[in-house]
Amino acid sequence: MSKLLIIGTGPLYDDRVCCFNGQGLRTWQFVMALRNAGHEVELILLPTEGHARPNVLTSEIVLSSVHGNFPYTLINSTSLPEYLPYLQRIVDSSHPEALVAVNHNAAWPVVQLDTDLPIWADLNGYIMGEAQTKSMVFDNDVYLGHFWSRERRILRRADKFSAVSRRQMYATIGELGALGRLNSANAMHGFVSTIPNAMAPEFLNPPPHRRGQFRGTVFPRDAYVVLWSGGFNTWTNVQMLADALSHAMMREPSIHFVATGGAIVGHDEKTYQSFLDEMSERGLAERYTMLGWIEGERIFDLYRDCNLGLCVDGKNYETLMGARNRITNMVAMRLPVLTTFGTEISEELAAIGAVLTTDINDAQEMANAIVYASRNIGETLEMAAKAARYANEKWTPDAATQSILDWARRPYRAPDNMKKMTILQKVNHAALARNPMAKILVNPADAVLSGLEEEARICERECVEDLLADSRDLHLLRNKLVFRIWRSIKKKIFCGMQKLRKSE
Fold this sequence. Notes:
By secondary structure, this protein is an alpha/beta fold. 49% of the residues lie in helices and 14% in strands.
């Protein structure tokens, strides 16, 4: 068994945590599967970007915490320059055999560490699809460069990658090719694996149902309750959701809508407000309840008190390549699901008749499906049971993470990173011969094997806009009369010196 250091993003689920997200669930999925396999696992948890320090009562950067009976290290900072030196010291002192970085926001700092340890980078979602939808929502393409700079850095360094869907796996392979990693050394290397989201243990084995927490108090006892659970992200089709709900409510008086979650702080605080505005225009305030982010311990009672869970996506590449934790968790709780057809998980469950689906952008079809579900409760419960049986075979932490379990038995580097380490040894030897105090390079990303990699490294280290500006300035200088005269004189002097040497 191996000694592994996992660096992931949180927060981890806790009864008191209001905003536990897909990143925290993904982190614990990896931790649990690798621990179950018998590996020695240490966890460093980074906070979600955009949030305040996890503990604002102290200025300490490294804190000790515990999840159940599992102790872990919590980084009490969201500033990379502030916490990266601490992360480096932890890695150096713990002597792991490999690093496992779970989620982009953990992989990005991990690949910047001065280490040649094997790195598995989990790319939890198609980040460039997210960049595109965020650019659309905020009408600003600056996000493309921000997200790509992180993706590029991760892809240039890590030894193995995991994606949440087969489609994302193929997209990642394409990105690796564009960056020069599909080289001769890696011709037989399986770079990317698919690791679907697993059902979280809290949803698989929830606490006993406390009746009356929502049904009969928050919404009417006899209502048919339709649930939205989680954040309203950039790829959510809020206009279609509002249209479908209002059409269904006008046709079926028993329907009541309830939503947990809301804006995603630091990432997308606009989409949720757009949904609130859409619902407000429809004048059905007594038929829906917006709960906001609620404590983790309350979510299970809410799921049990609801009749149907919704997932409504827009037509975009994030939908095509991404995953949906809300569907996975609803399936674990045996809550019937109605989803737009587009994500891989929606197609997978639809193929076995385990969910209701509608076309993306067809609000009337979704309204029809909501009304149908409200009048065919027994049928939807049978579909939910079928989905749960399927998920218990495919989406347990152990089953979903089989590829990294195989790798973790004997972690290894990508073949091209092995070649780069040899190059760096020669570079370091020459540097130390010139200066005994020279910095030793150990990160394989400091070496390149091709022009494609060199191009990516330059873009990573230099501001392209500054390079273009310097090029323009140089072009202007070369076209000035003084420069042309100087170049002509220099050429004549050089030719004269050559003739003089020949005559001697």
